[in-house]
Automatic annotation (TrEMBL):
Pfam families: DUF7674. Residues 11-112 form the DUF7674 domain. This is DUF7674 domain-containing protein. InterPro entries: DUF7674 (IPR056091). It comes from Promicromonospora citrea.
Amino acid sequence: MNSAERTVVDLVREIPYFEDVLLAHSFAPDVVLPHVFFSLVLEEVMADFNSSANSFDRAALFAFLERCLAGRQEEVVEVVTTSFIDDLPWPGQEGEEIVDELPPLLAEEYRRSHSTG
């Protein structure tokens, strides 16, 4: 299991709400597709945010992702950046206010990936 796959497992252990997301994306036993998983996590996050459902602790998720970026493991940073941060809403899109909840490293990466200049 590579570091990105371990990160998926660690997230599910830390925030069990996402176990169903993991099970829904698994096409074969013991196969973890981190990019697919984190894209699905983002869908859950945005649906939860836009509906004000508060089905899980977003702050805990963002803290987990912040630690992922701080760890600077290339595979993990790539997955979190490409399949989560890069797909957060742009200014003017529905749910853009979620960016205000991001901790410093996630916010910095968001600004970098969503800059227009």
